[in-house]
Design goal:
- This protein has 242 residues and is mostly helical.
- 79% of the residues lie in helices and 0% in strands.
- The protein has helices at residues 2-19, 21-38, 42-45, 50-80, 83-88, 94-123, 131-155, 158-175, 187-193, 197-210, 217-237.
Length: 242
Amino acid sequence: MKARGVIAQARAETTLGLRRGESLVVTIGIPVGVLLFFGKVQTVSVVGDPLTFLVPGVLALAVMSSAMVSLGIATGFDRRYGVLKRLGSTPLTRSGLLAAKTLYVLAIETIQLSVLIGVALLLGWRAGGGIPLAFLFLLIGTIAFAGLGLLLAGTLRAEANLALANGLYLALLFLGGMAYPLRRLPSAVRSFAELLPAAALAESVRGALHSPMDVPVKSVVVLVVWAILLPVLAAKLFRWEE
């Protein structure tokens, strides 16, 4: 019964998520737009094949948009309107609710990655080696960004969470090496950006898709640290009511 409840709630979460137009813009529209636009501009083409650079970054961007922005904002408003409190008192339980939200994120990411990889293939992208490793990094990134999204949703008022989540999304888009090479940033900014989960995810996936031997160890370590730290902080600090 508990498993059925989790699956039913995950199905409901996914249906509601796909009905939110603004959520679809963030989770699918922006990553596809970044892939189509930046694949043709000079700032990216200087790295060689723009698609080889962009596709891993856009996959990382998709994870950030669904796990941090979409999940975090939706959870924040669920908390604001007492939805979490009511669901927490049902047989589903709060742990079941979190499991359902996790399944929702994975379902959205499956759709995102299918669309983005399809568009990339149509544009002429061809994946190198290390595809299973790249998907492992995307899963670790999902854990990290879901932790961040839930941390914001569980500690801030809904409006502040909305503003900060969108602000972080834009900042990490430009500091994450997703659409713009990190090496073209000023050295101090680059050093700071390399410690952020966005850059760590993008560089790890990029290395894996080029060759498993090219995965930067520093990026993997940074990504794993964030994937441990952020969910722990979210679990400790999350408040179920405003």
